[in-house]
Amino acid sequence: MNSMELHASSGSTKVVFGDSREFLSSITGRTEMILVVDDNITRIHGGKMNGFPRIVLEAGESAKTLKTVEGIYHELMDKDVDKSSLIVGIGGGTVSDITGFAASTFKRGIPFGFVPTTLLAQVDASIGGKNGVNFNGYKNMIGVVRQPDFCVIDFSFLKTLPLEQLVSGMAEIVKCGAILDPDLFLLVEENYGEIISLDAGRLEQAVSRTVSSKMKVVGEDEMDGGERMKLNFGHTVGHAIEKVASLPHGHSISIGMAAESWLAVQKGILPSNEARRIETLLKDIGLPTRYKMNMDEVLEAISKDKKGSGDSINIALPHCIGSGSIHKVRKEEFKDAVKRVCA
Ligand SMILES: NC(=O)c1ccc[n+]([C@@H]2O[C@H](COP(=O)([O-])OP(=O)(O)OC[C@H]3O[C@@H](n4cnc5c(N)ncnc54)[C@H](O)[C@@H]3O)[C@@H](O)[C@H]2O)c1
Ligand SMILES: [Zn+2]
Questions:
Q1: Which CATH number is associated with domain 2-159?
Q2: What's residue 311's pLDDT?
Q3: Given 1.20.1090.10, 3.40.50.300, 3.40.50.720, 3.40.50.2020, which CATH number is that of 163-341?
Q4: Ligand 1, CB cutoff 6 Å, lining residues
Q5: Which pLDDT score is estimated for 266?
């Protein structure tokens, strides 16, 4: 199995590409293992987990609450789990965010690992150590930064993932290429068809490059003070769209990347042909780059962004494909770019 290591101040993660059942079986003799899954994963992929004790959560974002975490604590106590045990979250980003938070806080922290089953979780949510739940209507309000011990990327799960979810995950790959890694961007430009149709070689190339780009910035800036903020490209406008239009995460940040690219063009930071290249790739993949929405609602949601202070927001903008930096942008400067994508 191919593997890579992430070293950060809160811990290290071994990222392994291969058969998750084989990996889990190889460590099962050494430690007691409890799986946390959602009801879809256990229904569709339960066979891969036979023989392991399981905690089953309701599928979807609405389960990302302190109440769900409390339920996990109860089950861990019933099962006499202690620091010598290992909790493994198998599922999409909701399962990994919840599992990582429950494991990081139970008995002041027990070891945990992930088997991400959506493309978005494989390239983004399961890497980097951000774990948490939503609170009082706000996303990821309660959480910790703590790295999982391991993350097993097993592409066989993606065969059952609905196309919309797969395409949503592609947005995070494009984001990494656009702001961090020109070769990754080119790889996706030339092979997006094969990647979406799960061609094993191309998929592994794209996912491992995205993971290693993310690992590099997390290794340098685990607590999100500088370099890691680049991973927010497309997310200031994208999060506002997610709130207003209820689109999947990747679809929202795709529109967000289109808007923020044009903002960069307007500010004279990014040449317009580079912005067009980003927009064209997103469209080719099947992601939206505009959507019928109320522009004032989007602008209102942007003005509440938690990375803002006073009348400006710090956002990551590309200078060219594969490179960018953080810029202070006045809230009114978003207007033209948002107008462009609200059609
Ligand atoms: N911690 C981070 O750094 C980070 C980064 C990005 C996103 N996130 C979080 O990730 C979450 C979104 O993750 P997601 O997009 O993976 O969504 P998800 O976990 O809600 O999964 C989406 C749906 O797909 C189903 N599913 C999962 N794997 C499947 C498979 N292989 N086959 C069939 N169905 C499958 C799930 O049961 C669910 O219904 C959000 O809560 C977001 O905040 C966290
Ligand atoms: Zn994202």
A1: 3.40.50.1970
A2: 87
A3: 1.20.1090.10
A4: 38, 40-41, 44, 59-61, 64, 91-95, 97, 117-118, 120-121, 124-125, 128, 130, 139-140, 157, 160-161, 165, 249
A5: 96
